[in-house]
Amino acid sequence: MANTVTTQDREIKHLNVLVQVQLNRAIKEIKAKGINPLVVETLRSKERQYYLYCQGRTAAEANKAGVPADYAKKYANPTAKKVTWTLDSIHIQGCAVDVIPQRKVNGKMTAIWNSQDKETKQIISIMEKYGFEPGANWKTSPDSPHFQVKGCRGTTYSASNTTKWVTKMIQFHLEAKGYSVTIDGIWGAKTTAAVNKFRKKCGWKENGKLGKNAIKVLIA
Ligand SMILES: [Zn+2]
What single DSSP character describes residue 170? Predict the structure, then answer.
């Protein structure tokens, strides 16, 4: 079924490749804890973001914030509840995912939308461990069940241009491949050394960087 502006894309394989591998690992650990996770949304189209932004806003308000006039007119819904505060969601980059627990309540499988729920909190802590930034932890406008990885848009990662979230994910993969790193989100000399050892093994120049192809080999 094709996705429309009102439906969520739930395909993990539509996400950025680094993010999807890491999400699959996190989900495996969530399931091992006996929790049944539900992926609510992965990749989001720009038009759907416009639609969401128009909820709880007038066409003029949405347009002023950057929603093109035709979309603002089409989707404005000032009486609805606001659901987003940004037009630049990381979902559009394929680097964000919403995950909630689901379980039987009174005999019926139920999606749990409650940031204070015990299983929700376990999901948040596991996702954070795997390098995702939980929206639940934001001081202003917390967004549970949102998880994101800022800085995925780049094509070549190195010490100078990589966010702590992407760095953490790369460190996970370096360690999984047997290279000595600390999974702390800090790309220092130890991480560069591990990257270079990996590059040397692949027969590549030891330049301390990971490009698109290197990432593909690293996560395979
Ligand atoms: Zn989200």
Answer: H
In the chain, ranges of CATH 3.30.1380.10 domains: 12-44+89-148
In total, the chain counts a number of residues equal to 220
* Residue given tokens 């040397």 in the structure block: 200
Per-residue pLDDT, 2: 62
Please state which CATH class domain 12-44+89-148 belongs to: alpha beta
- The token pair at 21 is 């591998």
Q: Give bridge partners of residue 39 from the DSSP assignment.
A: 99
C-alpha 98 to ligand 1 mean position (Å): 5
Q: Is the sign of the CA dihedral 143, 146, 149, 155 positive or negative?
A: negative
Average predicted confidence (pLDDT) for the chain: 95
Count Cβ neighbours within 10 Å for each residue of 44-53 and write b for 16 or more, e otherwise: beeebbbbbb
Average pLDDT of the residues in 149-173: 92
C-beta separation of 37 from 100 below 8 A: yes
Condensed to tens digits (0 to 9), the pLDDT of residues 62-108 reads 999 999 999 999 999 999 999 999 999 999 999 999 999 999 999 99
Give the distance (Å) from ligand 1 centre to CA of residue 164: 19
Ligand 1 centroid to residue 78 C-alpha, Å? 21
Q: For residue 193, report the phi and psi dihedrals to the nearest 5 degrees.
A: -60, -40
CA–centroid distance, residue 22 to ligand 1 (Å): 16
